[in-house]
Amino acid sequence: MTVPDEIRELIRRHNARDTPKQRERARRQEWREEEDMKKREAARRRAHEAARSREHEAARKKEYEAARWREYEAGLRAAEYERKNCAARDANVGSSRARRADYYQSRGSSRQERSRSPASTPPRRSSTMSRTKDRRGSDAIGVRDQRESTAGVRSDGRSWYQNRHGDYKLY
Question: Distance between CA atoms of 149 and 123, rounded to whole angstroms?
């Protein structure tokens, strides 16, 4: 007895169909591949993040070093400026002292005479002086007036004045 073609086709299709075991195996294989892909993606993402954080850390370190260097250079510049300024000021002080000494010697008065003079003792500030107002109407007295009104020379030759707070300043 010959098997009709339709039945033969049905049998072929039935045999080609996966068995439940085969289907389960295929499903597990697919799941494993998906999991592997997820792991690879996560590892790639972690590596990328680590690289980014390393770059970020390096950039921060570089910026920090640059800031420290700028700070150091600014300190050097300030020290240099201070050194020059102090040298210039000291030179000036010396020369102004010498000029003062020359002036007093030319007038014929010695330091001892000056130290006995009333100008070397700081005068008391009068209450009216502190209340005098300048043109702008403020209570501040101009430094020149202030120095003229409350100033003198010490026995060691240094000049002094009293500022508006009543402090004695040497110059």
Answer: 8
